[in-house]
Structure formats: C-alpha cells, structure tokens
Design brief:
Blueprint: E1 6-9, H1 17-37, H2 41-46, E2 54-55, E3 60-62, H3 69-79, H4 82-92, E4 96-108, E5 150-155, E6 165-169, H5 184-190, E7 196-197, E8 206-210, E9 215-218, E10 227-236, E11 249-252, E12 265-268
Antiparallel strand pairs: 1-8, 2-3, 3-4, 4-10, 4-11, 5-8, 5-10, 6-7, 6-9, 11-12
C-alpha cells in the first residue's frame, strides 16, 4: 500500500532488545490482568512508578514504566537510523523532538479476553492530541488543524490476522475531523473502500505515519490472540504545539547510515 503519509519499516527492532521488551511487557500485563480480575484499582495504581501514567480503558502504560534510560537509548538506536531516520527527516526536517509523555506501551486483547474496563481505540488522528473540541472558536483556530508530527508504532507481536492490528484511511487530510464525525458509519461513508488499509505486521516491524492520518484498532470477533505495541510521537523541534509544551521532550540526533554508534538522546527542550 503506497501512501504519502505512512511507511512500513520491517524488522526495525530485533533481538535481543525485542525479546527483553516482550518479556517485561508480558510480566507487567500479567500483574495488571490479575488486579483487574479482582477489581483492585489500588493494586493497579501500585504497578505505575512515580512519574509514569496508566490509561485504564486503553490498557496503556507510559513507556518509562517498562523501559529504562538505557532501553530508551536502544529504542532510539533502533528507530532513528537508516530507513526510519530518512522518513522522519523527510516529514519533520533534520531537527525533531520526542514527546516522552506521549510514549506508550499498549495492549489490545482478543475480543473473547477483554478484561474489565478495557475498550479498543476508535477512529482518531494523533494530531488531535490535547485539542479541546468544545471551544466555540474551533473552526477559526489554528489549533484545530493538524500539527506536523509523526507517530512511530512498533508491534511486539505479529498482528493483523490472529491478533488486533491497525486500520488506516490512507488519504492525508488537511484538517482535524470533529469527534461527531469519527463514527464507523460516517468514516465508511466518507472514504471509498480502496482508501482503507489493514497492514499485517510481524514482531519488531514499525509503522510511521503522519498525525493527520485517520486510524483505529482493527479487531474482529475471530481474533484469538492479544497484541502488545509501543508507540512514540515525534515533532519538529521548533514547532511544538502550544497545547503540548508542558510535556517533556527530548531532542534526537539521528544517522541515516547503519554504521557504528547509536543515536543519542539530547537535552530536554524547555517546557513552555
């Protein structure tokens, strides 16, 4: 599937990092599932380290819950060189920043295994992060247009056939879709069938896509396996949206070659 706003990069994360991240993620979600089965919200809170967050219905932890600073550097080495670095630079320019507070470990469950308080993601655009759609001046505000950004979404399990994957509308949009328009019926009515894409991915594959791209969790009743993924968001370093400037950002130094020396995490950008 060719699309100007999406690229699929196979085998972006490989052993031994992949196996280590999977093992730690599985251990964390086993503890989460046990606490959910007991309805113990206090126990769930104890799973979240200081400075990290957990989204209950999305079954998502901020990435620092399972990855150390060393792991984050390994992540940068895997995702910000070669093919992925070339694409990131083509979309964001040579200087871009990683929003640490919008980096997540997520699990989507097979429908028959949905735990208490869990729901799949409906249609949305990542460029709508932090937008208040209830504002009266929505149609006139620059905040309601997609900001330049890229999401890097990495599968820790094979997905799209036996376990939940992602579904995209491949047409890039010039504006943010209002929440009332994000129903399944309206999205199917707005775009022709050939503009929908459901990639099949293997563990370690990465999808990079622009913030205006519509997407959702793709899940069917016949899926029998769970899927875990990592997602992070990148912005041009000089174009951080005002509504997100309270987040923690790290600059990234990248390389477009496969030579020695991993990319490094730069200094935090000052908060707005």
């Amino acid at each position: 599937m060719a699309c100007a706003g999406i690229t699929l990069c196979p085998s972006t994360v490989v052993s031994p990092q992949l196996e280590s991240w999977i093992a730690r993620s599985d251990s964390l979600y086993q503890s989460l599932d046990a606490a959910r089965e007991q309805g113990d919200l206090a126990q769930i809170d104890r799973l979240v380290p200081r400075g990290q967050r957990f989204a209950l219905t999305a079954s998502s932890f901020t990435l620092g819950t399972v990855l150390s600073g060393e792991d984050l550097r390994a992540f940068a080495a895997s995702t910000c060189r070669g093919q992925t670095a070339l694409w990131l630079e083509s979309q964001l320019g040579s200087a871009f920043a990683w929003d640490v507070d919008q980096s997540w470990l997520r699990r989507q469950y097979a429908p028959a295994r949905y735990p208490r308080w869990h729901a799949p993601h409906g249609w949305h655009q990542d460029a709508a992060l932090g937008v208040d759609f209830s504002r009266e001046s929505a149609s006139d505000s620059a905040a309601f247009y997609p900001c330049p950004m890229v999401t890097c979404w990495i599968a820790l399990d094979s997905c799209g056939v036996e376990s939940p994957g992602l579904e995209f509308v491949t047409r890039p949009l010039e504006d943010l879709v209002q929440p009332a328009e994000l129903t399944e019926e309206r999205i199917r009515g707005r775009f022709p069938p050939e503009e929908f894409w459901r990639p099949v991915m293997q563990a370690g594959d990465a999808l990079l896509f622009r913030g205006e791209i519509l997407h959702r969790t793709y899940v069917t009743p016949g899926m029998t396996r769970d899927r875990t993924s990592i997602e992070v968001r990148f912005f041009p370093a000089d174009k951080i949206p005002e509504r997100l400037k309270a987040d923690r950002f790290l600059t990234l130094a990248t390389t477009t070659t496969d030579g020695p020396g991993p990319p490094s995490l730069g200094e935090p950008l000052p908060n707005g």
